[in-house]
Design a protein that fits this description.
Low-confidence stretches: 1-21
Largest sheet: 6 strands, mixed
Strand content: 35-45%
Mean pLDDT: 87
Order of helices and strands: HEEHEEHEEEEEE
Shape: elongated
Distance between the termini: 29 Å
Number of strands: 10
Length: 131
Amino acid sequence: MAVLMIAAAGLTSCTSASTTASQYYNAGASNLSITGAQLDQDYLFRFDTSNAALTMALPSAADIVANLQSPFVGEVIDVAVAADGANTVTLIAGTNVTIKTSASVVQGNTTATMYCELDNITSGSAAVTIY
């Protein structure tokens, strides 16, 4: 019922106002380094953690900001990471990216939604925080 209500309201994306349509990225059983464009484009990053713990290296804050159409301080990008197996996925911060402790590790057999807030969009000083 809730899905129908959301669809009826015309909501089709859970990402920021600057982003394109949400996408799914299957990293499989590999570590992954993403770009700012991927963070802006892809909503769900899935990892097969059935055999080993994996990592997801985030881009720099400058790359994240540069790939948004009209970034603004306080803007939030939603991103989900799925650890599809018993092991974890650990996020690795890019330059000027702060990852809060609660968002740094996705436990096995869990999907965690994280929020990337733009703290500074000034060229040369861009900064974001992942919650």
